[in-house]
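User: Predict ABC transporter domain-containing protein's structure from this.
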Amino acid sequence: MSFLVVDRVSHTYFTEKTAVTALENISLTVEKGEIVSFLGPSGCGKTTLLSIIAALIEPTEGAVFIEGKELDRFRPTAGYMLQQDYLFPWKTIEENILLGLKIMGRLTEETKRRALDLLAYIGLKGVESHYPSQLSGGMRQRAALVRTLATDPKMLLLDEPFSALDQQTKLKLEELVWKTLKEYGKTAVLVTHDIGEAIAMSDRIFLFSAKPGRIMHTFMVPDELRRLSPFAARQHPSFSALFQSIWKELDELETNQ
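Assistant:
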């Protein structure tokens, strides 16, 4: 049984005068501990599907199952990491990373210690009493990752979490997030516009067409790349070949919109 099953999901946004179908008949599976990417042109419904998996919106048709059980909007099982860190500026880093645990009524000495240990693990030991304005963009995004992981979600949903960062910080954070996900055995879904990022971070890549969003192709990342960290994968000869294949299909999809 697959960890995540998206079964014939379609979604239409309705207004008083229009109806826009963002997704049409999406079916896919994700295995436990796997990292997959949603890649495609703007307007292909990637973030809409991520929001459905996060139980933030209900699909017009179809269903999503986690570990064989249909998604429950009132008991979400996923952690969501966005483009912006959305740390509260008036709270310290420690207060920010413990906020989810506090809201869920799960803040104990043990869960607090685990969260602070994770903060140290990703290189932010000593900033607990700092405020977000005292940290760089990359450091704030790392703190946001800790806040997301602190509640021990079954799955991590990443909506272009590195896109607002400069290239060097982005590459370093890709490396850190990939290592952390592997270390903790987390299942993850990444939405990105960056082909290189999708290849470097993922086990599989789902390529979407737009208007409405459909899965046009599933790319398997070769084993020799999956075994490598994102930075090392970018240097491997197989990386360029896969990049060119995806680029060609993505270019054709955007040309034919």
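The first helix runs from residue 46 to 53.
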